[in-house]
Amino acid sequence: MPPKNPLIVLSAALIVGLWGGSQLVPIPYVANLLVLVTAILYVACHSSLVLREEQALARGELPPGTPDDADAPRPAGSETMRKEDAMQFPLLGSASLFGLYMAFKYLDPATVNLLIGGYFGMVGCAALTASGTPVLEAVLPGAFAGTKVAREIHLRHPLPRSVFGESPWDLSIDTTSAGVLSFLASLVFTGFYLKSKHWALNNVLGIAFCLQGIERFSLGTYKIGAILLVGLFFYDIFWVFGTDVMVTVAKNLDGPIKILFPRTLIPDAATGKLEMSLLGLGDIVIPGFFLALLLRFDAHRANLPVFPTDPHASFPKPYFHAALLCYFAGLATTLYVMISFGAAQPALLYLVPACLGGSLLTAAVRGELRELFEYSEEEEEEEEEEEEKKKDD
Q1: pLDDT tens-digit profile of 325-337?
Q2: What is the bridge-based pairing of β-strands 258-262 and 276-280?
Q3: Annotated active-site residue in 283, 298, 310, 393
């Protein structure tokens, strides 16, 4: 068995330890927030290294030793952002945010939370299943955990195709025994969360969203990542400082779109609830996409083997470490300003300059700005560029 990266193991232990410990003993919420979020990013970004293998498979590359007549392995589902998506994302996010604000203002908040809670419950169950399956595969006996479970399920529906997709829905199962057990456990867990809405259960779903989102999503290029971050920089400033929309939605929306940090374990005498601080998942996941891209760029520069991809492999990570350190500093600055002024702060106001500045400064010092801007994980655009070059020649 290849050696494990001790920092990944430590980060995973910190995630579990802080989640459990914060329910038993009072942990200063600033330290809890900074350490937990950094640990989540470290684990999630290293898990995203598997995208290098999937991207190679999508390009038609095969693992060494694969027979010529063998069927090409099918890459797992992952998403790559386009430049157009990055430019539109702040606009779509604004429309969604304002829509939620209007819903809470003119509709029954309990009904709105019921609908949104049901949606996030389904998505959260899927995220928990994906996060729990590898754990069960490692713990359960190999012969049992690896047993294939496959069944085709197609469900016809009369609903509008423009909203609910084509009929029939493809609900086919292609997993292992460990995957089935993980799904059943996640289903029960999500049911408990929807019934109790306990903050600790909320955090489990939030952490699973972060881990799976960062692991499965690619920004494509550094330029696209910069466009997305800059757009959301202004988006965050406008909706927090310019209006009360962001704060209102964050306080009223009762769903796992944030991670909660108790300031004390003693409930308030008047409300019976704990006093909480929160951090939206977007302030973790969006920079996480960018950090994960930089880590894969580090792996590309180090010529890390693609087949098989080992998230625990040791290689130089100057860009990732610099950006992660700057993210930590940006998040600490956010908390300092928030506490000093006693007002909510748009975290991306501090995180975006930190991440972009750290990565650009690293590239400038190393004389690798051009290489950083030319790095791409966009298969289609790379092929088009090659065709255009051939035509020019």
Answers
A1: 999 999 999 999 9
A2: antiparallel
A3: 283
Of the ranges 27-36, 63-72, 73-82, 197-206, which one carries the lowest mean pLDDT score? 63-72
Q: Is 176 in a helix, a strand, or coil? A: strand
Determine whether 393 is an active site residue.
no
| 3-class DSSP string for 76-101 | CCCEECCHHHHHHHHHHHHHHHHHHH
Instruction: Please confirm, yes or no, whether 283 is among the known catalytic residues.
Output: yes
Q: What would the pLDDT profile of 335-347 be if each residue is shown by its tens digit?
A: 999 999 888 889 9
**Cα(208)–Cα(343) distance, rounded to whole angstroms?**
29
pTM here? 0.88
Domain ranges of the chain: 6-59+78-113+216-392
Q: Which residue has the tokens 């995203």?
A: 48
pLDDT confidence tier of residue 381, bands split at 50, 70 and 90: very low
Relative to beta strand 169-170, strand 276-280 is unpaired
Sign of CA dihedral 249, 255, 256, 259: positive
- Choose, from 69, 71, 236, 244, the residue flagged as catalytic: 236
Q: Is 272 left (phi over 0), alpha (psi -120 to 50) or beta?
A: left
d(Cα 74, Cα 43) in Å, to the nearest integer? 25
pLDDT for 41 beyond 80:
yes
Question: Beta strand pairing status for 217-218 and 79-80?
Answer: parallel
Alpha carbon 55 to chain centroid, angstroms = 18
How far apart, in Å, are the Cα atoms of 289 and each of 198, 280, 310, 319? 28, 15, 19, 14
Report residue 159's pLDDT band, with 50, 70 and 90 as the boundaries: low
Contact by Cβ (8 Å): 121, 193: yes
Structure-model confidence comparison of residues 146 and 16, the more confident one: 16
What are the pLDDT digits (tens) for 344-357?
A: 889 999 999 999 99
| 165 three-class SS | coil
* Closest listed residue to residue 145, CA positions, set 181, 94, 121: 181
Q: Is it true that the peptide bond before 168 is cis, omega within 30 degrees of 0?
A: yes
**Is 286 exposed, middle or buried, given 0-12, 13-18 or 19+ CB atoms closer than 10 A?**
buried
